[in-house]
Amino acid sequence: MSEVGRQFEEGTAFVPQLLMAARAMKAALEILKPLMAGKETAALGRVVIGTVKGDLHDIGKNLVASMLEGCGFEVFNIGVDVTAEKFIDEVKAHDADIICMSALLTTTMTYMKEIIKAVEDAGIRDKVKIMIGGAPVTEEFSAEIHADGYSDNANSAVALAKKLMNIEK
Description:
Layout lengths: L1 H9 L4 H21 L10 E6 L7 H12 L3 E4 L6 H11 L3 E5 L3 H4 L1 H11 L7 E5 L5 H6 L4 E3 L2 H11 L5
Parallel strand pairs: 1-2, 1-3, 3-4, 4-5
Helix pairs in contact: 2-3, 3-8, 4-6
């Protein structure tokens, strides 16, 4: 997954190749997980990922989730149309290190700010990093809503997650 991500950034691989690699990696993990049962494996971190309330788009989110999982993160993909309460409940349930929020619509991306506020109100903002992404999302918007980072593609999302977890690339 790291190699196909690198090729994507260089412009020698494209979204269909990323999707095929992610599908192959997911199938391989399904075969390997039972064989690794009972063995301690240290994940790079725990990530709760979802598409925010009002938005049903998930191709990019699923690609980011697959890339994160393939690169060593434990990923809890909580789907689409996710409320602030659901993000908070899942972070607490899984002792997550990172929240990844996605939005494809300009009308739904503003809900990301509400989720960050809810995370602060729940008293867990200092325990979890927040990453955002999606077609209309920008670096400026990320700074405006006080997210910890923004990514515009799956490969850079992995690099950002590693950076937020203080893991060298």
